[in-house]
Amino acid sequence: MREKAASLLNVKLEEGTVASLIDLKGTIKGVQYKTKNGQEFIACAPLTIVCDGCFSNLRRSLCNPKVDIPSCFVALILENCELPYPNHGHVVLADPSPILFYRISSSEIRCL
Ligand SMILES: Cc1cc2nc3c(=O)[nH]c(=O)nc-3n(C[C@H](O)[C@H](O)[C@H](O)COP(=O)(O)OP(=O)(O)OC[C@H]3O[C@@H](n4cnc5c(N)ncnc54)[C@H](O)[C@@H]3O)c2cc1C
User: Fold this and answer.
1) Residue 35: domain span
2) Which of 1, 50, 52 should be mutated for ligand 1, with most atoms under 8 A from CB?
3) pLDDT tens, per residue, the chain with 112 residues
4) Contact residues for 14 (Cβ-Cβ < 8 A; gap 6+)
């Protein structure tokens, strides 16, 4: 998606790690971010989309009610194993939770 967005003529792509949102009296006006080489910048915009994933530090301050994390996924990669039915995902209805197995490369199976 980033590649596609960057290919548009009216898009200028800037990449960095957002340190904080710029909050002006309860309205988000942009972000403060740091580039790979440590330079700090501010970017302002009429719309800021916070999409920094499930471990977001930024969203916490925006959510009301507060973010609740009622469950989690645990994953591991099994190397050089076979599943009973090749080319199929597998769901094991176990207790206390279902377990998924699916191939992600010729030598790796993901287990969640
Ligand atoms: C092992 C595993 C398997 C999965 N399998 C599937 C599947 O088969 N099908 C499916 O639909 N979903 C699957 N999911 C879930 C799916 O990956 C997530 O739901 C989805 O990626 C969430 O997208 P997102 O854009 O919200 O966050 P993310 O994909 O986590 O993207 C967030 C981005 O924000 C960046 N970021 C974080 N903090 C900052 C910051 N301060 N400044 C700048 N950038 C920042 C991160 O580097 C990341 O690139 C799986 C998840 C896992 C962990």
Assistant:
1) 2-61
2) 52
3) 889 999 999 999 999 999 999 999 989 999 999 999 999 999 999 999 999 988 888 988 888 888 788 888 899 999 999 999 999 999 999 998 999 999 999 999 999 9
4) 33, 35, 41, 43
Tell me how many domains the chain contains.
2
- This prediction has a pTM of 0.80
Sheet with 98-103: list strands edge to edge.
76-79, 108-111, 98-103, 90-93
Residue 33 alpha carbon, nearest atom of ligand 1: 42
Spell out which residues line ligand 1, taking CB within 6 angstroms.
17-18, 51-53, 73, 75, 112
CB 10 within 8 A of CB 17: no
Same domain, yes or no, for 57 and 28?
A: yes
